[in-house]
Here is the input.
Amino acid sequence: MTELSKSGAAVGEPTGASPAPTAFLEVRDLKVHFPTDDGLVKSVDGLSFQLEKGKTLGIVGESGSGKSVTSLGIMGLHTAGQYGKRKAQISGEIWLDGTELLSADPDDVRKLRGREMSMIFQDPLSALHPYYTIGQQIVEAYRIHHDVDKKTAKRRAVEMLDRVGIPQPDKRVDSHPHEFSGGMRHRAMIAMALVNNPELLIADEPTTALDVTVQAQILDLLRDLQKEFGSAIIVITHDLGVVAELADDILVMYGGRCVERGPAEKVFYEPRHPYTWGLLGSMPRLDREQQERLIPVKGSPPSLINIPSGCAFNPRCPYADLPKDNVTRTVRPELAEVGSRHWAACHLGKEQRERIWTEEIAPKL
Amino acid sequence: MSDEKAGTKPAQSESNPVGGEVMLKVTGLQKHFPIKKGLLQRQVGAVHAVDGLDFEVRSGETLGVVGESGCGKSTMGRLITRLLEPTAGKVEFQGQDITHLGVSGMRPLRRDVQMIFQDPYSSLNPRHTIGTIIGAPFKLQGVEPEGGVKKEVQRLLSVVGLNPEHYNRYPHEFSGGQRQRIGIARALALKPKLVVADEPVSALDVSIQAQVVNLLDDLQEELGLTYVIIAHDLSVVRHVSDRIAVMYLGKIVELADRESLYRAPMHPYTKALMSAVPIPDPRRRNAKSERILLKGDVPSPISPPSGCRFHTRCWKATKICTTTEPKLTELKPGQQVACHHPENFEDQAPQDTVLLTAAKEASELVAAEVLAESAQTSAAVAAEVSETGTPAKAESPEDQEPTDKQS
Here is the structure.
């Protein structure tokens, strides 16, 4: 798990003691575990990545792979809530623009939240308060971080609504969320997330609940806004199409860990992990000739309480028996560099994987 | 309108490669949900969820139905399985009119028409074991399968790829994908002829989605099933369907076989819908110009726009679109379209060339290349058809730079 920091950027000591983050956002060995009656749920189990300003990182994975827990972890939203009597156990480091967030005073993090980093949620109906007008909610978000009077803040709200493409923003600012359509609510939520010009924007399944035509509008908006504000964006999604549209880098998660990470082009054209192959094969594609059959990943995602020993993907991996000595079932593979800025965690030999991809997988996609 | 449609059907069935006999025939199907207000619950309006559908499903084929949320595709599914009572129109199943059959009248037909639901969590009773759930159809229909219900249920479980020993387990013990398989097993219990699947895979993870899609494929082959698959995901629909109906605001705007629809969509809405699907290919990211962004949202089905319902968002809309509703007509063999100014085809209303103001705004969102290309193909088709050849030519410059020039 420390491979990233070793081979990636200019980080000497991966032990955690050295604050030398050159990247705008750097996550090191993040672990988020939830104690439950059935056992410890290891939602995120050693995740590291960096992200620069103006760049977009796409985190892909199936439900229960730890994508959302990661995003809430970065936002510091796990510590705030208690799970029964027990709290989430979080370890690792999250460096945002030179500040370590996990060890920081919760009050300080609170000041950053909304201003430095903010979040777009999947479901705007539950993210927006039904009782307050859209305007009131945006104004509140703005005034918490800016010492301005209500009038100025409201002007700012109208300006933001206009920016995200809501027609007649000066009128709609006084509407309640239920008066907006799904796409407009989404825009309003994006306006709220962006009102303080955050430098880090986390979009958790930003378009999953939307129709394709509205999704196209929202993706377009996100791209434009990034160009305009130069924020760093983390897009969390299960839709490889969305990641391909937005992301510069892609991180594939499985069972709470990163199994592959690299530039979008590499992950799509030279994937080096069987799970990524599986994802690509499962997807019917509009841009290709009709496939005869999809190539699904057999089985179902693992339980996070009982992650398979060795490689978490081994029970579903068609190549699990290739490496010698049953190593896939006993030893957990670490991320290893497979190309420039491209890492994968797999026991298969590098050449072996290259061969399987080019000869067996790629022709069928 | 329905009579007229019925007349055009036979010609079209010849052109279809999968053409078996007609299993389900729908004419002028409507469903309006009343909106009631006030003390007396007087009806003040209606949601025109489904507003005049004409199509047929032939045995052995898969008809895919796509459209955005609120276009009436799920209502359509519930109407043809008669879970809802149609407001108007006619549904015929294997020649029998089932439009207004009562519960008991429908019961024998329930064997032949089954449904797979979207949500594998709410469609299974949490208090019943899997055995009871899948065995329920036998009980309800009074069918005693060969070898007993238990044996048959276990056979069904293995057919859908579940462990037959899980007979006594409860739904919560299964994952989403497995639950969807249980729903499929239940739907297949009585050996139905027609299976209507409403968003069968949209609640599932990508890797599981593929498993279920393949399963549906295999079952169709083995059991000779006919499917109506309702989904919003165009890539999934393309993968599973033989013919595809595109719906917009309660109407079918285009109905064509898969290849024609994806190669050369004729309705501007179909074109926009397909261009909006994100392509999982980072190299294509710069080819964004192909994308047609639609402005705003789908209008309310309570008071749908006059004429062509898509005219408020269409970049090709002219005056005729606001006044005259285009009929779903077969322009090419196997491709029915309801549009005055179709893409990839000769203009149906060439005399009408003045774009609406809304259309001008909308066309600003469409890249010039796309417009030019569409004008070119339209002109080419027009020349090919060449009765006159002149009208289509006049249209192309208007489309690229919207100006108020009368031809």
Residues 234 and 277 of chain B are 8 Å apart (CA to CA). The first strand of chain B starts at residue 22 and ends at 37. The two ends of chain B are 32 Å apart (CA to CA). Confidence is low (pLDDT under 50) at residues 1-18, 388-407 of chain B.
